[in-house]
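Translate structure to sequence.
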């Protein structure tokens, strides 16, 4: 009798969960196990790149990869998870509902931007780079600005939130706006930070480089005051300052997929499910959570937990897929471990900053760091080629050697001997 592993989501964690599960299943052909991915589209949105221009190219089809590897795809949105009955309810794009049973479930539905109710007008009047649709909508807005009558509001673009995404967008916008406005003066960019320091969660290591980049690119910073409201005329801060703008972009705060609330078990403040080292939800033995939907120990000596990041999602997916299949097949699981952590922050035309470790010790800045960031964005985060052996071979559950990989690149480029 055929058994089934259902994976909810086709993002980084979902894709690599499917490949990780299929790889192990293929090593045991005597077992009849189907790997089924359920998502609105058979595509991977390159979410870490949505702050860049030309958002329409930030979506990659997964149809060839799924077909080549024998992974089944079902188009739809999971509305309900019933872990007692081992089934999910799927809503199709036409509005019909169907029940899909599973023997093992992997929740890889990711995360989404949070719009706090305390910030009035946010949902109605702000833009974002969190989703493919949001990024394309923002791009359309930026491109139409030159056709609007000049005014302080038209000529100011506000980025609300000075975390990782906010900094990357704020430093990318000056060159984008200059290209859009051609010979005319481009709008100014204002970065709003609720904390006194920009990029507070990034620590002191990269901050001097970030501050130099913002100054060099003439990005204005409003720090120490949170956004109170957004309306059609601009952004009002808690300090009382009103900044006129027709284009306010919200980047502050992420929450796990709401589907995590349908699974019994503890969750953190962002809604991520606590999982064990096999990435299983302890209270639901046939359910695994991965990517942005899970809170997992990375296995380093200081007890750090995974972040909502592509860097963690790609590796988490490999482990969750392997372990769900191993659990079903009666094979040994591989405890998740990803103790090494690097940060590569894009700083627009100024360059980038590459750091190592959770204390973010600066390794590279400027042009060289930008080359590393380009390599990450344009190559390392892309899905594998469709050829079955190549795709499955890359799905081995193992901790990556980021520093070794980057040093290899630097040697190839002639920066290291």
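Result:
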């Amino acid at each position: 009798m055929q058994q089934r592993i259902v994976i909810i989501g086709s993002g980084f964690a979902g894709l690599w969960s499917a490949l990780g599960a299929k790889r192990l299943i293929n090593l045991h052909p005597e077992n009849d196990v189907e790997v089924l991915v359920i998502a609105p589209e058979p595509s991977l949105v390159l979410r870490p790149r949505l702050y860049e221009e030309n958002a329409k190219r930030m979506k990659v089809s997964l149809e060839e990869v799924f077909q080549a590897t024998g992974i089944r795809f079902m188009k739809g949105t999971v509305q309900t998870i019933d872990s007692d009955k081992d089934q999910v309810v799927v809503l199709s794009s036409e509005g019909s509902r169907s029940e899909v049973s599973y023997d093992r479930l992997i929740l890889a539905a990711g995360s989404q931007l949070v719009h706090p109710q305390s910030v009035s007008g946010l949902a109605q009047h702000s833009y974002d780079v969190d989703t493919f649709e949001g990024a394309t909508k923002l791009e359309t807005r930026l491109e139409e600005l030159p056709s609007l009558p000049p005014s302080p509001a038209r000529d100011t673009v506000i980025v609300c939130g000075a975390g990782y995404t906010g900094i990357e967008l704020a430093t990318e916008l000056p060159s984008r706006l200059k290209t859009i406005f051609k010979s005319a003066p481009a709008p100014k960019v204002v970065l709003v930070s609720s904390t006194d320091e920009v990029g507070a969660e990034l620590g002191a290591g990269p901050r001097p480089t970030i501050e130099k980049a913002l100054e060099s690119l003439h990005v204005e910073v409003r720090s120490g005051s949170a956004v109170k409201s957004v309306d059609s005329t601009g952004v009002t801060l808690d300090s009382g300052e009103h900044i006129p703008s027709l284009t306010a972009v919200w980047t502050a705060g992420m929450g796990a997929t709401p589907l995590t609330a349908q699974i019994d078990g503890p969750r953190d403040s962002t809604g991520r499910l606590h999982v064990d080292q096999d990435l299983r939800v302890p209270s639901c033995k046939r359910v695994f959570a991965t990517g942005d939907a899970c809170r997992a120990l990375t296995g380093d000596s200081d007890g750090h937990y995974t972040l909502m990041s592509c860097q963690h999602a790609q590796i988490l997916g490999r482990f969750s897929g392997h372990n769900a299949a191993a659990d079903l097949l009666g094979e040994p699981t591989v405890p998740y471990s990803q103790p090494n952590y690097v940060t590569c922050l894009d700083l627009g035309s100024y360059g980038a900053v590459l750091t190592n470790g959770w204390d973010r010790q600066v390794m590279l800045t400027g042009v060289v760091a930008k080359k590393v960031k380009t390599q990450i964005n344009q190559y390392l985060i892309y899905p594998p080629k469709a050829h079955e052996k190549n795709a499955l071979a890359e799905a081995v559950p193992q901790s990556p050697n980021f520093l070794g990989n980057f040093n290899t690149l630097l040697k190839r480029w002639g920066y290291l001997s």
